[in-house]
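Re: export button greyed out
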Amino acid sequence: MEKTINQRVPTPLTKRNSLKRYIWKKRWLYLMCIPGLVYLILFHYVPMYGIMMAFQNFSFKKGIFGSPFNNFANFQELFGSQIFYRVLRNSLFLSITRLIFSFPVPIILALLINEIRSKVYKRMAQTLMYLPHFLSWVVLGGIVVNMLSMTDGLVNDLIAASGGQKINFLGSVDWFRTVIIGSHIWKEAGWGTIIYLSALTAINPEYYEAAKVDGANRFQQTLYITLPGISGTIVIMLILAIGGLMNNGFEQIFLFKNNLNQSVAEVFETYVYQVGIAGGRYSYSTAVGLFKNVVGAVLVFSSNLIAQKLGQPSFYS
Amino acid sequence: MPGKRSAVRKTADEYVISGFSHLIVGVFALLCFIPILLVIIYSFTPYDLYLKNHFDFFPSRLTLDAYRMVTNYRYIWTGYGNTLYITFFGSILSLIVLVLTGYPLSKKDLKGRNVYMTLWIITMFFSGGMIPNYFLIRTLGLLNNRWSLILPGLVSCYNLILMKNYIQGLPGSLEEAALIDGANDLVVLVRIVLPLSAPILATLGLFTAVGYWNSYFNAIMYMTKRANWPLQLVLRELLFESAVNEMTAMDERVSTPFLLKMASIVVATVPIMCIYPFLQKYFMTGLALGGVKE
Amino acid sequence: MKKTLSIVLALLFALSCMGAALAEDKVTITMIQRLPAAYIVEDNPVIAAWGDRTGVIIEVEAPPISNYSDRLNVVMASDDLPDLIYVQNLNNTYQQWARDGLLLDLTDYLTPEIMPNACKVLTQDELAGCLVDGRLYSLPRVQTKPLDCITYRGDWLEKLGLEVPKTAQEFADVMLAFAKQDPDDNGIDDTYGFSIRNFNDRNLIHAFGLRPSDVPDENGEYTVMEGQEGYMTYLTWLRDMYLNGALDPEWYLTQSYEDQDKFFAGKIGALYTDIIINHVTQWAANATFVAVNPEGTVVAGPSLLPEGADKVGVYYAPQVWGGYAINADSEHIEETLRVLDDGYTDECVTLLFKGIEGLTYTSLDPETRVITLTPEQTALADQWCASYATINYQLSNKDMIIAGGTSTNEVELANWMAANDFVSSLEYRISYLGEGTIPGYNDESTKLTNDGVYSERNEKITQYICGQITEEEMASYLQNVYVPACEPMMNVIRASGINK
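Workaround output, generated via the alternate export path:
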């Protein structure tokens, strides 16, 4: 009976019926989506009209709906600015280097923590590791500056005491990225382990038992069980990190930037800050923000697509 | 040195790996302890001693001046109250919505899921900015209401992706069995998925709580009365070096802001640091699945 | 029963309406102001007293001081503006608000009839910064600044047998002595002369005959300061001090407060930027300074004199700390004008800055301008008064509200007067208008920021001082890159004919 109907009228009506039936079957899943959807629309998509400001000459009196559009004038100004390309290059170079050097650190730390059997040691170490995350850059950066100072810094004193030549960590172009990435790892790597440690919990302990029976040593267990076990999380975190490549974080850069290293230290965040201070220009900074975000979105969706094509976990898997 | 699992035979490389792990993790942990230790020491050190030596771990004199100033400040206590409220209710509500949203998103074959997911991902990059958000909060009548600090940042897509990803990594067999038994999806979620998700709930709960604890920017826009400010905003104000913009003016930098800064960091961050050890047991390997297997 | 109840209720309602009407006799003026953290708006007797003086109720909103402009932007975009608005920066955004019609055009209100006090106190120069397209959209918060000075460690000078330096050469010699002759007697080479925070500080540049970019020379020609004759000599003078060790080698890392900290810590012996004579008296008594340097004294020195001159002319622009604007759509324009105008009376200035006699201070002598207060009064004054709360930041005769900054006794006052006399015997003030008051200047200046011209200049100068580039490179950069880049901005200045 059903079969014949399907054959006779492959119309929208039947499709709608089957869709209805499908939705009814999955009604609980759809119902669950409602709170999130309401939140998403109300707090994210309703205010989204603010993006129009990037294409406007914003007037406080007329508001976003009344301000005159100047189309791409803000973007023309951005792309026409003499230091735009230097800022773009600095931003990307720094964030890519940062990704390469700091992304693997929490993974390695998590794997190492996983190798520790003493619970007390493990807990203590973890707790200490995540502490710097809570300190702001102003505080942590101040400590780093004090440590690296040429005149009375701990590190240079040590170098001098061991007969070395003092290094100008803070006032040179060559050391800027090292200092930024190093202090970033110091601050965030411990906190970054949390997500991998929780992913580790999802690995079935039976696999380890089986591997042991097969005579796999610890290193092999890590390589063939632990690492694949958290690879999904690693890939997702990597995609997210790639999406963040346009961001370097204002506070940290601002703190370590000075007149001697600014040829590499000027990034989008510090540039926008300067322009904002000088001009207090709403539309222009919205446009710069939009440019950054479009690039970020393109990066995230394309890396997600690549992950999908490679059969790796992705947002849509 | 190694614990229970050492019943199985031990090879040389196992000792090497274990020793290596202890060493690296230990050294890194100690390095991470330095800054917070310094902050705590600074907060008790008279400013003149700090100026003489930035790395004096055993100052010859101690002072409680900065703590006295922090705790005497009128809005500290209202700030604490507001922050506790926001962090507590915000984290709970956030986790509820995260779970409810993350679970259907983990169903690959659910129609419309990819569209829904895409809508979420877009929010990671695009937002309307300060002015539309202000109008929204005002329209909702939430100005000077603590929920204006909870609702706008309720669910982050970042957390949602981690949630969804984790649920997908769980063994599907238990869910299927329950569905065949006639349980609906909500029952499966609550009875089967949730207990298995303790580690990720602890993780995301921690992320959310820390996020709420440290947030202040929305309060600048939505809270016109100082008594409604969260702790972080109150402290930012307290730390503001009062003379920066009036430097040449007659108001001088009266206090010792550095010491005050350190003391208020201790006051503001130590409580949130303390929740970690409570959640820590959920990050321990094998706990969740081990419990379910039996 | 029901009826009686309803009558009683109606009566009560009528009564409460009357009560409300009585209270509403006074108009409520709302205000947004940038106030420090310690300031308490709720039940503030000083604000209430100000309201009593002007016959209104004043309600103040105090957003976070460090994010004042964030909140103000939202307020300005929100279509319910307060009556009286403190604008922290009279920059492009302010001009845009004025042009958009959000702010009341005060040009025709600033008359002896409507605003007698403001009219009496404010000069055309002080108002210049508040003008937009020739119309007035706010009244300035002014402090005619007391004299700057260079401060030195008096005990160091004494120990090394040196005088307070007056010329660039003497300054360089003293700085080198501070760095090399162990003035703190601890046997370790750990002191420096000074640290730079602001290249073009007026305390240093006048010794080299430099003048602000918007001040013409005797022929009426305007030249950007970096292109003026003598600028390279000035930079080379700094560079020599860096290379011979007189200057703190890490001066370019110094953040806003650190040079003061270095001074307090006994690491450097001189400070110049943003230092006024008041600091000399205050620092000598500063608890931290005394704890680190028990023998330490602080003395004031003048801006550096050109070689052979016995007096130096120092350029001062009016010190305007933002302005007060009125909401163009305010329902109480008349009352708001009255409140604003009252802010320019000496009584109101004193009230907002120091509070109420007997409550927040014991006595304030109008002649000597010395204030006395008990510790309890000090605590209350911190809650209810602030320099930030003032409308005008000086007395109507341009004196500071409290002599010598915060003098609480005659000794401090005497010290301050002595230092003031010494410095002013060697300097004279040349008033001029800052370039920010020229219409169109901000746009050109913003372009230079956007294009990174300023940051490149700072980079080059820093490299030059630190000996990383040669004198030829530096001079050629300034003449061939920087000065031409500034031409559009200089043309705006030339067209305005300012300060002629």
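Confidence is low (pLDDT under 50) at residues 1-7 of chain A. The button fix ships in the next patch.
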